[in-house]
Amino acid sequence: MEYNNVAGRIYDIQGYAVHDGPGIRTTVFTKGCPLRCLWCHSPESQRHEFEMGYLPVKCIGADVCQNACLDACPEGAISRDEAVEALDGSGLIQKIKIDRSKCKNCLKCAGVCITKALYSSGWDTTVDQVFDRLIKDRGFFKNGGGVTISGGEPMAQFEFTYNLAKRLKDSGIHICLDTTGFAAARLYEKILPYIDLFLYDIKHMDTDMHRKLTGVGNEQILQNARFLAEQGGALQIRVPVIPKLTDKQTNLRQTAEFCLSLGEAVKLVQLLPYHKTGRMKYDRLGWRYKLVNVEPPEDEFMDEALELFQGYGLNCQLH
User: Fold this and answer.
1) Which fold has domain 7-49+122-318?
2) Which residues, at least 6 apart from 238, have a Cβ–Cβ distance to it below 8 Å?
3) Which pTM value belongs to this model?
4) What angle do CA 214, 43, 275 make, to 5 degrees?
5) Model pLDDT, residue 90
6) Using an 8 Å Cβ cutoff, are 281 and 44 in contact?
7) Which of 139, 159, 199, 313 maximizes the CB count within 10 A of its CB?
8) pLDDT value at 52 more than 80
9) Handedness of CA 182, 289, 211, 246 (dihedral sign)
10) What is the SS3 assignment for 174-187?
């Protein structure tokens, strides 16, 4: 099968993934997404541009590395922070702090950081390079596993995603595409023959509320879900359950009814309860997390939501 070895930008590849489709998988995370979901647990995936992240726990102190990052920063955005006790109890160390208003994400500091406390949130690669990495995991693709192309939004880097899917398909690997549904229908039509299962997000059924929560309306997303179902695509619908935002009974019922309307194309509906695990990533990027007062839904509520979807005859499970 012919494909083009085009370049793409990713921010992670994770092996032994068991939550990104059936079986044991390896997931490729592309960088860049047109949505800005308030609860996004991977903020490093949102912008296509490289960003500088900072992990203070890895910083061994400006004295040890002789102010390497301070000297490398052309904007003067890095300075010494207050001295703190070293984790091993050996004494005080002078970690750094970053003025994000000055930082231009030139990443010169990350280039000299010997412990990678300062790091780039992504890297450029090619279809062949990613394929060579993925094929090493083939022996672990058990129980219907394979590769999931995720993001960000992988359709935002369509040529890379499309050609990677073609190369994987030619090797007989099961492919999932984890998508928001926010891309042109013609692109989904083009990639459809190479995708075994679409992991498809339905975040809110009301377009005005969807826009408030994600930055975009849901019309195109719902239309693409119908299109894929009509064209024979297989869908695994994922529904985020965010207290006070997406968990209203009206929205959950309308979502279940929409899933039911897609017919046999919907192989599974997954309810995704809100969690806090992504909050620390915002600190690493110097971003403000907007849902600080939101707590995960109670188990009892999630059980009731599960019963609601199952009451429509849908194959539904908690993620």
Assistant:
1) TIM Barrel (3.20.20)
2) 199, 200, 201, 202, 269, 270, 272, 319
3) 0.95
4) 80
5) 80
6) yes
7) 199
8) yes
9) positive
10) EEEEEECCCCCHHH
